[in-house]
Amino acid sequence: MPYVIVLVLLVVIVALLVQYWYIVVPIALVVTLAVLLPRIIRHVRMRRYFASEAFLAHKAEIASVVTEHNDIASYVAEIRGTGSFGIGKSSTGSQASLATFQNTSQYAYRRDRNVAQYGAPNVHNCSLQIVRNAAGDPLKYVMKYFDIAATDATLIDVESLGQSISRLEDAVRNLKQRENAISNSFDPPAFILKHYGNEFMSQVGVNLSPVTVPYPEYVFEYVSAGGNSSQRTSFKLDTSAIDALLAALSQKMHFSKSVAGQRALMTASLRESIKRRDDYACKYCLVSVAVEPHLLLEVDHIVPVSKGGLSIVDNLQTLCWRCNRSKSNKLPSS
Ligand SMILES: [Zn+2]
User: Fold this and answer.
1) CATH number for the domain including 274?
2) 237 and 301 assigned to the same domain
3) What is the pLDDT along the chain (334 residues), one digit of tens a residue?
4) Residues 36 and 128 in one domain
5) What separation in Å is there between the alpha carbon of 291 and the centre of ligand 1?
6) How far is 161 from 143, CA to CA, in rounded Å?
7) Distance in Å, CA 275 to ligand 1 centroid
8) Which of 100, 165, 220, 319 could serve as 233's disulfide partner, Cβ 3.0–4.6 Å?
9) Which of 235, 262, 289 is the last residue in one of the domains?
């Protein structure tokens, strides 16, 4: 809007300077009104909608739904704060902070168009060959150069990363579904959704969560000595990549033949099969998705991994987020 006012002021100034101002000034005023008037009318309609009896009555009616949404939004922040979202570390540049680099070229050659990022834990500085190979065989190269060794301890760490990511993904998806359901139940006029989406949610009392899923990302980077060229391969550990990493690690460890291999790998399909086995119902409070369609369910280790609990089917159960939250508040690590 300010640019319209600036434009009009400019036109007016020019008009006053020229002799036809009495023609230019009315035209400028009409244009201003034509631009501003629809916005002003829309704003008044928006205020009237939010003050309307129908809106306020429905808001009061669904207050408990909104409260539950906001509780899950704060739960999402908790998962984000306490979960594990990183694994592996690049060995290149781990001591980079000890040294100082200076470009002391005598002539004005530009030798720093591309500068290697030494010291970033998720960046591996390497040859062009490795950058290219990593693009073809990402899991193998990430395991090798980010020091993700095929041991039972690593396997547990990757599983716990997978758990944190899938919990957060589920919870974020659940919030979106709830927000859509809340919005649909109001069925607001189209102009409200188009122009005042966030204002609508805040008028309803919904706290929008800014949390996104922090997938670990690994970068293989080559920077030429002269700084003239740079190439990189990046690889994101999302749920399917984590499952593939678990499979690769366990295969490398000959996991299925080991004692630890008596347990299952904690993958997305195992989590889904546990929920299916439990009929998508919480084992503690017995609430199910049949009763509460937007129920957020999680897969829980009955005896926590930190206390020696295994990822075997008998040690896994489905809990709703409320029961899982109060369980993990009683047990500091689950
Ligand atoms: Zn429950």
Assistant:
1) 1.10.30
2) no
3) 677 788 888 877 777 777 777 877 788 889 889 999 999 999 999 999 999 999 999 999 999 999 999 999 999 999 999 888 888 888 788 788 888 877 777 776 666 677 777 878 889 999 999 999 999 999 999 999 999 999 888 988 999 999 999 999 999 999 999 999 999 999 999 999 999 999 999 999 999 988 899 999 999 999 988 778 899 999 999 999 999 999 999 888 877 777 666 778 889 999 999 999 999 999 999 999 999 999 999 999 999 888 888 888 999 999 999 999 998 877 654 4
4) yes
5) 12
6) 15
7) 13
8) 220
9) 262
Helical (H) or strand (E) element with 80: helix 63-82
Number of domains in the chain: 2
CA–centroid distance, residue 109 to ligand 1 (Å): 66
- pLDDT tens by residue, 39-68: 999 999 999 999 999 999 999 999 999 999
* Distance (Å) from CA 322 to ligand 1 centroid: 6
| Same-domain pairing of 37 and 181 | yes
Q: How far is the CA of 327 from the centre of ligand 1 (A)?
A: 10
In 3D, which of 272, 282, 261 has the Cα closest to residue 324?
282
Contact present, 284 and 323 (Cβ < 8 Å): yes
**Burial class (CB within 10 angstroms; exposed 0-12, middle 13-18, buried 19+) of 295:** middle
DSSP 264: P
CA of 294 to the centre of ligand 1 (A): 13
Q: How far is ligand 1, taken at its centre, from the CA of residue 330, in Å?
A: 15
In a domain, 80, yes or no: yes
C-alpha 237 to ligand 1 mean position (Å): 30
In a domain, 2, yes or no: no
Contact 306, 331 (CB under 8 A): no
Domain that holds residue 319: 263-334
pTM of the entire predicted model = 0.80
CA of 314 to the centre of ligand 1 (A): 18
> Considering only CA atoms, which of 90, 121, 111, 84 is closest in space to residue 266?
84
Distance 284 CA to ligand 1 centre (A): 5
298 alpha carbon – ligand 1 mean position (Å): 10
Residue type, 199: E
Q: How far is the CA of 193 from the centre of ligand 1 (A)?
A: 34
Distance between Cα 3 and ligand 1 center (Å): 55
- Cα-Cα-Cα-Cα torsion 127, 130, 132, 136, nearest 10 degrees, comes to -170
